[in-house]
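Entry type: protein chain
Record version: 2
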Amino acid sequence: MINSMINRINYHLVLSRRASIFATLVILGGCLSSPPNGTKLIEDANAKESTIGSTQTSAVIQTKVDKTQADVTKIDHLSPRHSFELKLVNKMLKRFHYKKFKLDDAFAAKILDQYLDRLDPRKMYFTQADINQFNKYKNLVDDYINAGETEVAVNIFKIYQQRVKERAKFAESLIGKKLDLNTDETYNLDREEAAWAKDSKALDALWTKRIKNDYINQILAEKTPQETAKKLSKRYQNMAKRSLQIKPNDLFQTIVNAYASAIEPHTSYLSPRSSKQFDIQMSLSLSGIGAVLRTDEDYTKIVSVVPGGPADLSGKISAGDRIIGVGQKTKDSIKDIVGWRLSDVVNLIRGKKGTTVVLSILPHETGLSGKPETVSIVRDKIKLEHQAASKRIIEVDRPGSNGTEKVKVGVIKLPSFYIDFKARNRGDTDYAGTTRDVKKLLLELKKEGINDLIIDLRGNGGGSLSEVVSLTGLFIKNGPVVQINDSSGRTDILRDNNPEVVWDGPMAVMIDKGSASASEIFAGAIQDYKRGIIIGETSFGKGTVQTILPLGSYTRKSFDKPLGQLKVTTAQFFRVNGDSTQHKGVVPDISWNLPKIDADLGERAYKNALPWRHLKAVPHNDYRHFFSPTAIKQAAEKSLQRRMHTPKYVTTLNRLKLLVKAGNEKTLSLNLKKRKEKRAKFNKQLLALENELQTDDGLPAYKTIKELQDAQEKKNDDIFTKKKDIDVFLNETAHILTDLQYSNQLSAAK
């Protein structure tokens, strides 16, 4: 979480020389199969889908809305299938959701607010006059949903498209004029709680400030005025274009999810395409070319290639190449995909194992003006190793009977709790699964002679509930792992019934603000059993369970296209000690106490999040060699002293303070001279701190801020590199663990 926050702040403050990007894995395939009852218990944090409300008695509404359409007719209506799905979703939410709610006029108003927030979260397109018009129907949204009507929602979206088009046109016109960048105006970055602009004139004033800020950002990124004008003009054109590329299924997903998120933030509708992406995330199994793509301006850029994957083995694809065309089987079938949405490009590239995809590539060496090359690649099954569990060993010094001795600390990095349900149910012997993979790594680490173990759950947003229960069982003899309280009020206790303990030695679990859901169950169980020490930052605070409900399994009616899936919050989980992790999260035994960004990144930041609760604790047996509170307190004090006298840690902390301070700024000056001075000062400070870290690692210093930016971008993109740096927090965790183990040995000797 620390690194992701740093990268995010870095991106806004330093790496503004490129436009915002959307990265995704291309070749993802595979499914999430159902248990016998047709449902799947899963968990994931930060699941915030697009969504909205719906419609009824819309003939009069249609007449009023059409007067403002001005030739925006990309989506005129949704299909009868969507209407049927909306009614089905409505019934299922009322039946299965953990939170009992009443779909009445008051709730309908919340749904409309959620929809508008999803369309225009920063209040940059709609005016107060638009909102007043929409609000005439807010008490009718419940009626629209019950009737399965979406016409008003579609019409609001069409107005949104028109407003985006108007703003793009205004922005382009302003770019052609001389901008006054010598005033002492400021631009407010945080508009979530801002009022809607009164009218188009007020929006013009707001957008004038935005455009000035965009222009200044480009100048600060060392672009010439000519380059800046050209780039921003293209950016605003693409802004309007992208709003017209939204397809009916995408809009329907936004509509339904306005309803779902008004109930609770982790409930959402997944369109058929989104369902595939979700299945891929859970199974880590994919069929395609083996590459990571992102949108770069109008182009689809290859960020990384999977080692040993089809793209890598072709010898003709490399990071930095741009895909400009995609075909199937033959060169003649290639379609030009410049300007396409990334998800649509992915759909063309993905396919069945053994089939051929043909790509038209602009090699990175020749750039955009180079000659395109055609590459044929046979799709194959790939495992996303970078998302699966991985291991390493850290060696640290520890006092011993004969002086200082070397201690091997094993580290297992676990990015998610994954499982390939379909492969497991087929009887595949090599299916991807967290517990299987971690057990294998543990046995390897034991053979390599480790003394202590760290499970690194930083940034792990959750995953399979069954996997977290079985994974916990690798470290305890048997017993309860988590309590599940469902919508009927019944509480079930999920237990580990396998007496086998794969690792019985000292262990620590690292968590941060990005550790959520299944990660919190695991960390909480380890803490409740006193099985190990929890180190890092307070976790995310997601204590709810989601069930995947395939809509097609709940109806006999058939359509020419598949129905989507509903991810419904059906229960809340509680720790062995009776505490919920909801809102509060898991509090570490030893905290880094790092500087905080103003925006709350946890569950508390979500609207409509379920509250914290407590249940009765479940009897269990503590780990026999647990670390005492006194030993933990002493280790924490020793750690703080060591960190404050470790140059690399102090530098890392100062770097974080610099970034957090900058990231907490809500307003920016629109005076170019002042911004240049401030940016120069920031870059100078950041470059100095980064070079201190380079020196600590025995690496050459960066000569310029641009060299630093390029290196950071390459490092962020290179997700398949297994040899990652040992960060100061991981290294310090190893030291804390060895300190505690030494204390235990001394206590045992006495």
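Comment: DSSP finds 22 helices and 24 strands in the chain.
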